[in-house]
Amino acid sequence: MLRLPPFRYLAPRSLDEAAQMLAQEGDQAMLVAGGTDLFPNMKRRQFTPPVLIGLRSIAALKNISGSPEQGFRLGAGVTLTTLAENPAMLEHYPALAAAAGSVSTPQLRNMGTIGGNLLLDTRCNYYNQTEFWRQSIGYCMKKDGDICLVAPGSPRCWAISSADTAPVLVSLGASVRLVSVRGERVLPVRELFRDDGMDPYTRAADEILSEIMLPPANGWQSVYLKLRRRGSFDFPILGVAVALRTAGDGTVGDAHITLGAVASHPVEATDAAALLIGQRLTPDLISTVAAVAAKRAKPLDNADLTINYRKQVTPVYIRRALSHFM
Predict the structure, then answer these.
(1) Contact (CB, 8 A) for 300 and 310
(2) How far apart are CA 205 and CA 217, in angstroms?
(3) Residue 54 counted as domain residue
(4) Which pLDDT tens digit goes with each residue over 29-43?
(5) What is each CA distance from 57 to 10, 14, 103, 266, in whole angstroms?
(6) Is residue 191 in a domain?
């Protein structure tokens, strides 16, 4: 049986109190909300923080406010189940509802939060294993080792971003609010990520993700498709998020295509999306765009199924996603 390492648990009642605790505890502390990813990682000794600061008692993090016309503000502590079943999300931001509803199992979606999923630790077949397994192979660069076992000659870690909601929020043009004792800052979700498997986020160690801000719906349509071995529970092998806005004559006015689980960060296929602007969707155009977008996906041998299969299926899923808008 895998057991949690010892830790001290703090339960702030407000965001300000949580920020103060995080500043005081420094590198000794980690934040936890639902804990659906952190606690298993702690059992496997990927993380062994002496202090956990729990965010579940902070009511302000559980709010959803706004309107389709003005945009929505989602507290980082809103559960994935709540998001997946929210009528406004289902109608106006269906890709986000679909992504939230595709995470893991119902029980874990009841605990897991949108903030926790967005800041999900990057994953790799050589990293997400027990301490005994990792020790037997000499560890990897991401934890306790100095070599990336996926690409031994590489100077960097290639662990992949596997958060279902991340590519959707990037395609939707969402922003996040980060709070600390130093103040707060707002930045686009796309700027929250960096292409680094070991240090994948631009969030500072003393910052708390307090909310996600969705822009006005304004005629945008969206879809999210997820590839995984099983129909539930599994992390994505590929995520395809597409957001389109069409004019009255059926031509595409704006478009965003973002791929998940193909790199250490959500990958935007901007060149492919640009091919859609001013055009009406046709099977030939969709096939062309899918082929261009798929070139942005360069999977390595650090996730489920084979590299060749994942490469071949990428344009198929992009075509399926775009076909939803025809």
Answers:
(1) no
(2) 32
(3) no
(4) 999 999 999 999 999
(5) 11, 8, 23, 30
(6) yes
Q: Can you tell me the distance from the alpha carbon of 104 to that of 236, in angstroms, rounded to the nearest whole number?
A: 10
Threshold 0.90, pTM exceeds? yes
Q: What are phi and psi of 123, to 5 degrees?
A: -125, 155
Number of domains in the chain: 1
Report CA-CA distances (Å) from 78 to 2, 110, 190. 28, 10, 20
What is the spatial distance between Cα 101 and Cα 84, in angstroms, rounded to a whole number? 5
List, for residues 80-104, the tens digit of each pLDDT value. 999 999 999 999 999 999 999 999 9
- Quote the CA–CA distance of 321 and 326 in Å, as a whole number: 10
Alpha helices, DSSP H, located in the chain:
15-25, 38-43, 80-85, 87-92, 94-102, 106-111, 114-118, 131-136, 165-172, 270-274, 283-294, 307-323
C-alpha distances in Å from residue 207, one per residue of 74, 195, 281: 17, 20, 42
Which ranges of 223-306 does DSSP label H, i.e. alpha helix? 270-274, 283-294
> Would you give the DSSP letter of residue 281?
-
Q: Is residue 253 part of a domain?
A: yes
- DSSP per-residue string spanning 190-211: GGGB-S-SSS-B---TT-EEEE
Give the other-Cβ count within 10 Å of 27's Cβ: 10
